[in-house]
Amino acid sequence: MIKAGDLVYQEKTMVNGINCKDNKNNRLSVVLFSFFNNDTEYICSCPITNHVINFRKVDPNFLYIPYQILSDKKLCAVKLDSAFIYPINEISETGLSLNNKVLLKLYDAILNLDNNYNIDHYRFIKDNLRSLSNEIEFEEKAKLKEEIKLRKQLRKERKRNYKKCHE
Questions:
Q1: How far apart are CA 64 and CA 138, in angstroms?
Q2: CA 145 to CA 153: how far, in whole Å?
Q3: Which residue, among 51, 41, 38, has the nearest Cα to 82 in the 3D structure?
Q4: pLDDT tens per residue across span 1-48
Q5: What Cα–Cα distance (Å) separates residue 82 from each residue in 26, 32, 138?
Q6: Could you tell me the pTM of the whole model?
């Protein structure tokens, strides 16, 4: 089952609404969300590229991933303005996924993206991303609370053991 944040290969990648013919048969992409329409599952994804970093000029259409995926020498970037919807039969899984912190940054970058073309398409995507980002933030807060609770329990246990040893 494909979920948000998974890295997948897709056959016919759309870049800025145009079918991109490049030197790769399959393009690596990040799944933003999935949905059903007329008993068919669709995936919304953004392509991943090895975009060259220009530190003098920040490109708002790219979000850099803080770890390497495609190569050991280049950082990967997600092309934000190329989010598109594909049928599930054009997608194949890789088994890799982004962590929730990077996924939240990706959602935030797409939600803050000013896109002048295909406004209705991006409105649909942004509405879905808002609800998903709220769910992920809730999960992250619950994980953080659980970690804090476990740390406190461990500290109390260590204090008790220390007192027993030194009595």
A1: 24
A2: 12
A3: 51
A4: 788 888 888 876 666 555 555 556 677 888 888 888 888 888 888 888
A5: 16, 12, 28
A6: 0.72
